[in-house]
Amino acid sequence: MFNMSDKNKKSLTALGEFGLIARLAKKTFVAKHVVKGIGDDTAVLPLTRKKYLLFSTDLLCEGVHFTKKEDPFLIGRKALACSLSDIAAMGGVATSAVVSVGLPKSCPVHVVDEIYRGINTLARKFKTSIVGGDTVQNKTIIINVAMLGEVEKTKLVLRSGAKTGDQIFVTGPLGRSLTTKKHLLFTPRLNEAAYLVSHVKPNAMIDISDGLAADLGHILEESKKSAVLDEVAIPRMKGASLTDALHDGEDFELVFMLSRKQASKIFMQKHVKVFWIGEIIGQGRGLSLRDAKGKIKKINFKGYKHF
User: Which of 5-14, 118-127, 149-158 has the lowest mean pLDDT?
Assistant: First the structure.
């Protein structure tokens, strides 16, 4: 199947997940009508004069995103929640999804029922129609969700819009998502995102799936900016260390940037709970951390990587 005489024998481990994505993106055809392709939480496509279509997909695999020991209801719930979180990060509203599953022949029917009950429970909550999908036989459980959403053109938020002087906020505490089961129990921040884009309009936003440092790094990369985080200000789950909060991942909170003027407004409101954690400081693509004594040190974009 594989030609080992190929000149380029670099493995996926050597290339890395985001190296692979960048490599594929360079070779991927994108038509001129596409507003935003690879490189954000969802693709952005034309829809109407006032709206864009959002298109996203997430693949969850047994042994990577969940285990056999997990509640199948929560597995299904998470499968849909991940895609809903991507729509939230763009400032949009989810409309419909197709769900495809790979299942072992020995999988009990009640497990499948519970997976879909979890999917449908969250779908009803956020008024997202499940309109189709596919089923295949597989050695382990895999679930793929492809989701459509909409966003008003004036409310679209991309990763590339961060500006020098922007204040950085996050919508909730971070770290220890696996031990606290937050990675299964989180609620996608669609309501919070809707408030933000309607009242203060973030310059950039992303949901935290791979870890605060890693996902903030995507914004800094796309925006060509640097940032400094305040160590004391970063909210943490009970028992979480600073390292956990920076690098664990699967928090599914939103991290976003507001101008100083808009930041002053967010402090005055009581509708959405947010935490200030730092500032965009200028050109480059670096990330630094300021400790309680004011000492600043550089940190890397380490987070969860599949390869």
Answer: 5-14
